[in-house]
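Following up on my earlier thread - several people asked me to post the actual chain instead of describing it. Fair enough. Here it is, all 272 residues.
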Amino acid sequence: MNIISLLTDFGSRGSHYVAAMKAVILNISPETKIIDLSHTVKPFSIIEASYLLKSNYSYFPKQTIFVVVIDPGVGSERGIVTLKTNDCYYFVGPDNGILPAALGNNIEKCVLVKNDKYFHKPVSSTFHGRDIMSPVAAYISLKTPLKNIGPIINPKQLKMIDIPLEIKPNQRKIKCCIQYIDAFGNITTNIPLKKNRISKTDITLSDKTRIKVTKNNSTFEGKYSSHFASVSKDSLLFLQGSTGYLEISINQANASKILDISSGDIIKLQLE
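Reply from S.P.:
Thanks for posting it. Predicted structure:
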């Protein structure tokens, strides 16, 4: 069965936009199964969108097609691209930095979407998700070769975004970016961990590690732990989240609100 997954920032009041995208897909490829990855991305947040993609796409069956509509440049000269990864997933979305941030070097083929044969017409200047990205994804699900959709381009031509991560191992200082805030207020940084070790460093975190987090002129301190209940209620803690990144949380409280930290913020950590 063909699978298309949708990722947008339309929110609950944009559910009719999502329905229109699904309708266009099903009119072209009626047997396709459509899975909603998320429609609650923070409006216009390329960082959140790239995080949700990179931390979730590999759980889907091979050949799943992801339609990514976080598109503040819709109607402008920005391009739309279709990608195939080395591990056989497909992505359709705007050339605004989301896809290379999510996929890194895992891009096998990239085409610039140009052939309007595969568009839904008339094409709205404000809804390319419905009129270009969704139908293109539907035709890919029917095994349309990518070369038919547009010219092949070098992935290095794609627009890149800077998501800061600076680690000073000797000083045990880190400057990082907040990728995501979930409904509980848990704060996901872009610091990758594997078995409690910060990737590409010799820094291992343990329950003896104290961490200070600073944003602007405010500093908070907590312990590193493997689970929430290791600290008392309303206490700050740091842990390795389910997606493999360092998270900042407060046991049974909203860390994002209390620390006044939002996705996209840059913060500093001091490991003790």
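The domain at 166-271 is CATH 2.40.30.90 (Elongation Factor Tu (Ef-tu); domain 3). That should answer part of your original question.
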